[in-house]
Amino acid sequence: MAKNITPKEKDYSQWYLDVIRAAELADYAPVRGCMVIRPTGYSIWENIQKYFDDAFKETGHVNAQFPLFIPQSFLSKEAEHVEGFAPECAVVTHAGGEELEEPLIVRPTSETIIGYMYSKWIQSWRDLPILINQWCNVVRWEKRPRLFLRTSEFLWQEGHTAHATKQEAVEEAQRMLSVYKQVMTECLALPVISGEKTEGERFPGADNTYTCEAMMSDGKAVQAGTSHFLGQNFAKAFDIHFQDKDGSMSYAYTTSWGVSTRLIGALIMTHSDNDGLILPPRIAALKVVIMPISTNLDRMDTNILPKAEEIKAVLNKALGGRYSEVDEKFYLRPGDRFYYYLQKGVPLRLELGEKEFAAQTVRVVRRDTGEKIDVAWSKIADEIPALLDTIQNDMLEKAKIFRNEHTHRASNIAEFKDILDKQGGFVEAFFGGSVDDEKAIKEATGATPRCFPISRIDEVGKCFYTGKEGSHLAIFAKAY
């Protein structure tokens, strides 16, 4: 079964699609650019949702739901916003058998419709801050779709907040960036770099855009999540004003921030191998599969299978949920049963055969490394959860080491090109160029500035492209 997956060294793009197919994560929909997320893929998204949603609520945010359809006139109220999204918009011109008086935009993002609602809800400083998030689908018509990474319709969350002062709004945008980084690192085992986007990479209509950037196993970058300080741009466009404590009228400061099902693509390309999907245990809906094995049907029914069910109950209690199951695909050969769960990325396989039953043990096989160890029945409740934590930490460390080994420094454009041509990965370089310079670099090399890393904001030097002194350190890469 594993032979059905193209080696990533041979054709990375096909390998990625083969892993999705073999793991049954998604399939192509009849509408070009759209996808069907299958149960295995959706279970991953549910866990991603859970971790992020819990983190949002810990920071005081609440969930709401806003309309899918947005009046076309709303999008034109913020000039940069409409210019940025117009090429990707799907427009509804007819409904109910009639032509609409005003066309409707199928939601590409919700700053405009939420800005309109906030203008109705906010009259006084007492109404602030508003901290709202929504989980929904959006539509951005993609010319070059790729499952999970870029599809015309995708799932995401979008947080939208309004504040009385600029400082509060900036702190909110940066706080949510920190929340993103924490969840991505601790739960998805993605060692992301958090930073601020350049002018050319900002969200349309934002004063500042902050980002989490992840390196994939081919050296390319994925923008894993973004948080935007929108200043008063949308507040002025939609008249979100309020009476301040001193009685004066002021415009609110707003933010927006989002992550999407693109994270599933990032998980695949960061952790998986030529045998199929590898999932960090905290994201896997099925963390342990127990595999009873015997050619003696009587022994299977009277001894091995009941013991497997007993182990399942012990594990689910120890793990605090329905995270293990017993495989009963006895119509398949043992090897095919192994590969079925291997390709789905289940972190641990517990084999219980005649030999193990006699020794009162299980053979434990790690998906990430293939390592095999024997664990006594009496120690399963303690050792399996601990081993899952070890796998989680090992996967994060492995991804971090890979990123560091594929990050290089360039001091001029010649070195920059040479690194991208021969090694790929992330390129660190001081950069102080303009939007036009960013475009020229992309045209010449295919790379874009991913961010100015926040943790290294004090590092300044001579711009590798313009020669400008006092330029900040930036990360460049080719990206999905």
CATH class (first level) name of the largest domain? Alpha Beta
Number of strands: 24
Total helix count? 14
What is the CATH architecture descriptor of the largest domain? 2-Layer Sandwich
Compact overview of the structure:
By secondary structure, the protein is of the alpha+beta class. It has helices at residues 12-22, 39-58, 72-75, 79-85, 111-121, 166-186, 233-237, 262-271, 297-319, 334-343, 354-359, 380-405, 413-422, 435-445, and strands at residues 26-28, 35-37, 62-63, 69-71, 90-95, 98-106, 130-139, 153-163, 193-196, 208-215, 221-229, 241-243, 249-251, 253-260, 288-292, 324-326, 348-352, 361-366, 372-376, 407-409, 426-431, 448-453, 460-461, 471-477.
Characterise this structure.
Strands 3, 7, 8, 9, 10, 11, 14, 20, 21, 22, 23 and 24 form a twelve-stranded mixed β-sheet that branches. The chain starts with 11 loop residues before the first helix and ends with a strand. The chain has three domains: 270 residues, BirA Bifunctional Protein, domain 2 (2-Layer Sandwich), CATH 3.30.930.10; 106 residues, Anticodon-binding domain (Rossmann fold, 3-Layer(aba) Sandwich); 71 residues, C-terminal domain of ProRS (Translation Initiation Factor IF3), CATH 3.30.110.30. The radius of gyration is 25 Å and the shape is globular. It is an alpha+beta fold and 480 residues long. The protein contains 14 helices and 24 strands.
Q: Which features would summarize this protein structure in a list?
A:
480 residues, alpha+beta, BirA Bifunctional Protein, domain 2, Rossmann fold, Translation Initiation Factor IF3, five-stranded mixed beta sheet, 14 helices
